[in-house]
């Protein structure tokens, strides 16, 4: 299970290798993408009614949810356009799994958005919207890592190391099978 989790999180190695590029993308995307939300807050502040801002209503208005929908959709379409990336089978498997999760997330965001439009003043709506946007940002960051094939090389190295470990285990196993046991002297390897 831990090996699966390490393999699944391997695309995030791009962030470690290119931190400035990733941070620039993340900050620029989130700040520009949530600009309508920030402009509403600035507008209330300039009007002198900053104390009267209802953040729950502002978050529940759908502005942030729309941003999350567009962000994930853009991430999916961008990574699908990198046709030459994804040379090994494990990388293709990870990509396919993530694409399935992203499509499911897009469907969920659409259902939440359509459901919330028809519900008047739902007190839980802003929490659902906020959590959906956070999940969307994390998923978009994961999709961002697919733009580069650096992590796939690490995946190939992990596969080679696993094969070497399996060969070593098989070799040790065959040595043990060929040894005779003398109770007084023990096993000599």
Structure explained in plain terms:
The chain has one domain. About 75% of the residues lie in helices and about 0% in strands. Helix 6 runs antiparallel to helix 7, helix 6 packs parallel to helix 8 and helix 7 packs antiparallel against helix 8. The longest helix is centred in the middle third of the chain and has 30 residues. The radius of gyration is 25 Å and the shape is elongated. The relative contact order is 0.14.
Question: What's this entry about, in short?
Answer:
The chain contains 9 helices and no strands. The chain is mainly α.
State the domain count: 1
Could you give the order of the helices and strands? HHHHHHHHH
Number of helical segments? 9
Shape estimate: elongated
Overall residue-averaged pLDDT value? 75
**Strand element count:** 0
Portion in strands: under 5%
Quote the distance from N terminus to C terminus: 31 Å
Largest sheet: none
Going by helix content, strand content and strand pairing, the class is mainly alpha
């Amino acid at each position: 299970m831990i090996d699966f989790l390490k393999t699944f999180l391997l695309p995030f190695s791009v962030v470690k290798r290119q931190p400035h590029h990733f941070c620039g993308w993340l900050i620029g995307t989130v700040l520009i993408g949530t600009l309508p939300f920030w402009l509403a807050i600035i507008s209330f502040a300039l009007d002198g009614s900053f104390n009267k801002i209802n953040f729950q209503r502002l978050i529940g208005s759908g502005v942030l949810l729309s941003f999350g929908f567009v962000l994930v959709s853009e991430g999916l379409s961008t990574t699908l356009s990198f046709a030459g990336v994804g040379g090994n089978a494990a990388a293709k498997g990870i990509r396919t799994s993530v694409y399935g999760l992203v499509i499911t997330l897009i469907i969920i965001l659409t259902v939440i958005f359509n459901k919330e439009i028809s519900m008047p003043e739902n007190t839980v709506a802003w929490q659902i919207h906020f959590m959906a946007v956070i999940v969307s940002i994390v998923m978009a960051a994961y999709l961002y890592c697919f733009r580069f094939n650096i992590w796939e090389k690490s995946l190939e190295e992990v596969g080679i190391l696993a094969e070497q470990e399996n060969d070593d285990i098989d070799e040790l196993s065959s040595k043990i099978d060929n040894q005779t046991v003398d109770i007084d002297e023990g096993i000599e390897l």
